[in-house]
Amino acid sequence: MPTTPAVPAAVTAVPRRLRLVCALAAALVVGVMVVVAVLLTSSSTGVVSFGLADQVAVAGLGVFVGAGVLLVGASRVDADAAGVRVRNVLVRHELPWSAVGAVRFDRHSSWASLELTNGDEVSLLAVQAADRERALDAVEGLRALLAAHRAAQPAPPPLLYDD
């Protein structure tokens, strides 16, 4: 007889590999832009003249783009008995378990998602397929928390003409 998995007190998921890739990409972008800024010496081509302000602007643009790349890897999922909190790239969701219908992680999906009871879907960008076992552990933990919430809820009263 299969045993039901233990319900974790809390589940936390972050995209480990995506964070590493984003950090490397951000470092590369900043490095390239700083090199371009340094090599953009004070000169005039006859039409356009480059100065110190241009060098600072190019380096600042590199830092700005690098920060945007890092933001992609900042997604996170935190869940406990009270509900689930999702932070994707720019959007945050705080959902009670009563609003969650299912935790989905299809075979060929890049990330997991929450199906809500109102028919909407919330992507969990922190639970990436590239993280393999960590992603599966997070999905199993989320499903266990959802099942524990459902088990603790009283049965709904029967409908008036329920057979």
UniProtKB/TrEMBL annotation:
Residues in Low molecular weight protein antigen 6 PH domain copies: 75-143
One Pfam family in the UniProt entry: bPH_6
Key word Transmembrane present: yes
InterPro entries with a match to the protein in the record: CFP-6_PH (IPR019692)
Record keywords, A-Z: Membrane, Transmembrane, Transmembrane helix
Bilayer-crossing regions: 20-40, 52-72
UniProt protein name: PH domain-containing protein
Origin species: Geodermatophilus saharensis
